[in-house]
Amino acid sequence: MKKMEANNFFNQKNIQQFNPAYLCIVVLTFFFTVCCSAQLQQSRFDSLIKQYQQLNWNGVLLIGNKDKITYSATLGFSNRETRAPMQLNTAFKTESVGKMFTAIRILQLIKAGKLSLSSSVAKLLPDWKIPNADKMTIQHLLTHTSGLSSQWEHPAYEFGKIYTRNDIKKFIEEAPVIFTTPGERSYYSNSGYVLLEEIITNTDNMSFEESIKKNVFYVAGMQQTRSLNDSVLPSNAARPYYQITEKLFSPDITKYGDGKASGAGGWISTAEDLFLFAQAYLNEKLLPRKWMEIQLTNNHTIDSNSPYRRLGMAVLKDKPEKTFIAGHNGGGKGFTIDVYFDYYKGDIVVWCSNQYGAAYELTGRAFAILNNKKYNKPIHADRIRLADWLLKQPTNNIPVITDSVLSQLNIKAANEFLFFSVFDNLTEVHEYRAAKAAISTGRERFPSSAYMWIKSGENALNLNEGVEAKRYFEKAFLLAEENKDSALITVIKQKIASCPK
User: Alpha-carbon distance 191 to 198, whole Å?
Assistant: First the structure.
């Protein structure tokens, strides 16, 4: 007994001798430390925002945890032409973020015993003529390992055009298959999530939109999330843009088809609603912890060769030090959205931008601050620095992009995507001379890429160089034949036919 009392600080003797002033000092020191830490973190976030403001980024950033928002900021403009400032309740087209909603409803149905991860597509969608459907399962669709591509990879698909359900069905059935054995490897497939949409509709016996509203949005309290009613963005939505150079932006004037969200995404939402979704997920309102683990570990069969090989979630960071940052991104048609959370710590970062390509790095830096880590100062993307350089060159000839130029611009990853993106962005603002320099360099560095030759032909037509355009298309045709790419061959034949005689 005496030994126990000697080791018990709060025995009667010590209580009598304890100085209350000491306890006060301890408590005050604790709260002072917490407050200083919070202020330092706030200061680091403010500094991060200023750095991205200097890069002319637009967007809404929300940071917090499963209990509350601890930091919020708005950057730039929701409409650059009218100079309308970004607001916390500005709406954005969220694109592939919606895949999380689809996946969660599928897992809810599996939990209820109405579906199984091993259920075959052939059994669930017998009226769809999907290649290898008998070997393709729900798990393959969720993890982008089905071998399917995306409906817009069909040669006849036109962005912005209104299509019926039967049209989309036909595109998916006829679009090229990337590989024939489901589960063999990964290929990001929007078509797979359209099939999941059909499975949800059939299983719930209600429209896909109503099912997701009832089982995801209402549960999470997401009152500002919806499909578009038509092909025009609502008045509270940000106008979408592509950043061409440091100061040059091009608005995306795409019409959004019939405006309906699909299993692959496309919902209209706000940063505030997306934060509510992340909170609802972490607080187990959408799935119990057991099923969250099944989702984030791909049913305890993690395959690390793709960040998307979870069940409808993507992994931003997976490290041994108990950091597991998951969620999903969405990008396209002038928008970029990130919704990510730390599964262990409960931290949440939501970033919504009306500027395509403005993701990942800001979100990653926000998590670095949350984890008291350092980060590299943000700079303009390679494609923006290269486009800036091209447009500053004399207009009397086509500039040459040498290794020396790339080194001068500190561009280390001179891959195909760099030249494609610079070409597409410059074409968007009708800078065809500079676009020619970008795609010519790409063609010289990657001569076996049929797409480089196709882009070269497209730009030649823009410059009224019909003979050159046909020559480029014919070279692309030979490469497509070598690769036995029948879908691409069909596209190139159409382009050759479009050349002036």
Answer: 11
- Report yes or no on whether pTM surpasses 0.85: yes
DSSP for 38-61? HHHHHHHHHHHHHHHHHTT--EEE
Q: Determine the angle formed by the axes of helices 450-462 and 466-482, rounding to 10 degrees.
A: 160
Q: CA-to-CA distance for 103 and 134, rounded, in angstroms?
A: 21
Q: Is 90 exceeded by the pLDDT of residue 129? A: yes
Nearest Cα to Cα of residue 139 among 122, 123, 116: 116
Sequence-distant (6+) residues with CB within 8 A of 295 are 103, 104, 107, 287, 310, 311, 312, 313
Residue where the block lists tokens 């091209």: 390
Q: Are 341 and 281 in contact (CB under 8 A)?
A: yes
Query: Do residues 440 and 399 make contact, with C-beta atoms less than 8 angstroms apart?
Result: no
Cα distances (Å, whole numbers) of residue 235 to 92, 232, 270, 444? 11, 9, 13, 45
Angle between the N-to-C axes of helices 450-462 and 432-445, in degrees from 0 to 180, rounded to the nearest 10: 160
Regarding beta strands 69-75 and 241-243, do their DSSP bridges make them parallel or antiparallel, or are they unpaired? unpaired
Q: Are strands 249-251 and 347-353 parallel, antiparallel or unpaired?
A: unpaired
CA end-to-end span of the chain, whole Å?
Answer: 105
Residue 436 · residue 452 · CB < 8 Å: no
Pairwise CA distance, residues 56 & 79, whole Å = 13
- Tracing tokens 């601050």 back to the chain, one arrives at 369
Backbone φ and ψ for 268, nearest 5 degrees, come out as -90, 130
Q: For residues 321 and 176, what is the distance between their CA atoms, to the nearest angstrom?
A: 41
Q: What phi, psi does 153 have (nearest 5°)?
A: -85, 0
Whether pLDDT at 114 is above 90: yes
Residue 234's pLDDT is 86
**DSSP state letters, 92-136:** EE-GGGHHHHHHHHHHHHHHTTS--TT-BHHHH-TTS--TTGGG-
Chain-centre distance for alpha carbon 259: 19
pLDDT of residue 6: 39
> Tokens representing 355?
């500027």
pLDDT at 315: 84
Nearest Cα to Cα of residue 283 among 225, 360, 220, 372: 220
Q: Side-chain half-sphere of 140: how many Cα atoms within 13 Å?
A: 25
Strand order of the β-sheet with 347-353 is 69-75, 59-65, 347-353, 335-342, 323-332, 314-319
**Residue 419, SS3?**
helix
Q: How do residues 417-440 score in pLDDT, each as one tens digit? A: 999 999 999 998 999 999 999 999
Give 320's DSSP letter. T
